[in-house]
Every structure is written in C-alpha cells, then in structure tokens.
C-alpha cells in the first residue's frame, strides 16, 4: 500500500566475461497471490559504471511513471568461480596447502570477514520428472548460498543430465543454507520446477 516503497536490500550478482553486461530491473505490483502487474522496467549498462566505488543512480521506469533509486558497486569478483570437473580448484596440492595456511589457527583473526569458502561439485541428476510433451526435460541446476547464485548450463532432452561443474562460494554466514534447485528450461517462459534440496552449512 505504498507509492514510495523503501526496500533497503542488497544483492550480489556475479557476471563473467561471457555474459552480457546489462542489468535488467523490473518493478511489479502484487494484488494477491495470483494477480501481479508490471509497473515498469529499466536497464543499467554495467560496463559504463566506474569500478570500485558506489554509483548512486536514479533510473526512470520505461513507459511508466516513477523511478528507482539504487546504489550499484562494480568490483572484481573474488572467491566465486565456475569450473569444469577436470580443473577443480581444490585439486591442486599447492592450492590446498595455501588454503590450509590461510585458515590455520594463528591466522584466525587476520581477516574476521573471511570465514571460509564452500566448493560444490554438481555431477549429475537421475530420474528427473518429464516436463515436456516429448517425455523429456531440458534441465539446469541453480545453486544459492545467501544472496549468491550460480547455475549450470542446460542439458537438453535428458532426464539423467550430467553437468560435471565445480562451484566455489565465499561463506559470509556459517548459518547459511545451500539451496540446490533443478529447473526445466522452457524457452521464453519461466522455467518449470523439477526439484530442490536444502543443505545447512553447519551439517557439512
């Protein structure tokens, strides 16, 4: 019930060199659980923003009244990576030794924000639900930790997809929960939900 909402929320997005550098933002109004209405959208060209500083932007909504006020910071991506199984970051003995040194007891208080990191190997899924009329699915896997999100590529027409990807996340809160969700890609439509598992970090 507000025409001037204040959200004051922060989100971290990771974009890599092979991704488009445009941030798309949409504002929606929700009447009830079933009815939603688009109030406007705007776009931000990430490549045009200065790095390593907070950029305060007032963005007018396209073809609709109103604007969004945002702070956007572009910084080098640290601690987050996607790699193939054959070049797993922790597979290198030298890197393992550096990590052991970094988190040893005598270095515990060197950087209080550096809690650690989580490495997840997404190998495959088995016996997924068929979401298409052909009796197949086009599955991809999304990993979320806190407000970090990474995803695999899509394996088309397959109920037993193999991704063989390694994801590395920095840990910001030891009480966070890793959520792994499998979706079926459906062209321009929202993806179909195929299943989900939640893993508390404290259980690892």
UniProtKB/TrEMBL annotation:
Domain of life from the UniProt record: Eukaryota
Span of domain C2: 1-59, 93-204
Keyword field: Calcium, Membrane, Metal-binding, Repeat, Transmembrane, Transmembrane helix
GO MF annotation: an example: calcium ion binding
Gene3D superfamilies found in the cross-reference section: C2 domain
Cellular compartments per GO CC: synaptic vesicle membrane
SMART domains per record: C2
InterPro entries (UniProt xref): C2_dom (IPR000008), C2_domain_sf (IPR035892)
Similarity field: Belongs to the MCTP family.
Name by which UniProt lists this protein: MCTP2 protein
